[in-house]
Amino acid sequence: MSSRAEAFEGWIRTSFVQMNTELENLYFARPDRAQVIGCGDPIKASLRDEGHAHVVALLAEGNTGEGFDSAYGVLGSVGLYLGALRRHELTNPAREERSPFPEASSLALHVGASLGMAPRFSTGHLATHNRARAGVRKSFTTLRDEFLFIDENTRGILSLQRAADALTSIVHLGVSSPVADVMFDAAKQALRDVIRFNGRLIDQLDVERFFYSVRPYYKPYRVGRQEYRGANAGDFSGINEIDLLLGLCRANDPYYAQLLVDKMLFMLPSDQVRLRDCMTRMSLLDELLLLVDEHRHADWFQQNARAYLEVCDLFGQSAAQHHNGLVKRFIEGPAASLNAQDMQGITASGPPLPVLLRSLEMLRDLRLAADRRDILTRHADLDRLRGVVHGYRPPALSS
Ligand code: HEM
What we know:
64% helix; 16 helices; globular; single chain; 2 strands; mainly alpha; 2% strand
């Protein structure tokens, strides 16, 4: 990493975090916690100007060709900076046609385009590729609830990646292979972990602190002329690999295909490759359905179809928990007390909250293979499998 990139990152890890934390504590102490305009203006000015000096130095340096990690780090630093400026209302896409920060926009566009990624920070910057230094990872603030959120998100993402890796191995073994049992077990254990980490968030995250002091950093903002949606914990390929390999979602479904296209540039290039590869595979469900008539009494079919159904049930439970436990509790609930003005930009992806919630419900129900008439789920296909696997019972949650 160049010394200027290192200096910028050093600032992000120290003064930037301190200033954001001070501002959050000021806002949180106000009678209306959503009202940030006109509060802490000298701190906001320092944050803007100190960050600007780093950005200008890096922009002058140009592309130093120091490799992926360095460029990805710069994209994260400039992205966190722009995300904070948006959070503190020093920019707001609703009242501007272009970003008022042209130098930061140019830097983000240059680095983003050279990496093949959206020119903003994404989940990888704060999760899977957030390198700790002496135990401290990058964050916007030092608030306990922010660390809880990014740490449990990262544990969840890593676990979903493990489940995706295990299911990918089964594609290569074939769903009839006796060896698939260890990989189905690995996927089940990983999904139990996801459910455990989600449960910790539900129990331990403070609703108000999360809603007023953490979530606002994930709002959409403009880079140059264009507005880019915020980061969310779904910006990695593993979750979609699981959808597609289990066969619960299909890449030729117009709703789901659109979702894949929209998130592609928010993922690391290595994840983009994994997702594209996965889109060309036959799902495990379709493989099992081709075998069911002829082989349903075979031991291998009984064992592997049972394991497949158990994985689906755990995945469905984790999806229901994300929607009914996390989204409702931490976003829909507290949003009910906001006025129309403060509702703007509340979601990371930008659409009004009811629209986002309907779309997330659809995803939940695809993953649950729910019995819905208005969307095409795999309900009937899973019922068919359940009908031929002797004495099938969904797995208990304790591991
Ligand atoms: C307090 C905790 C959480 C809340 C409130 C929350 C809320 C949300 C919301 C509102 C979205 C839609 C994005 C948008 O705003 O436009 C979303 C997307 C997503 N979140 Fe979370 N989330 C939380 C934690 C997690 C965790 C721990 C995971 C697991 C790793 C996760 C996985 C996902 C995924 C995969 C998506 C993309 C949509 C999908 O494929 O389901 N989230 N989340």
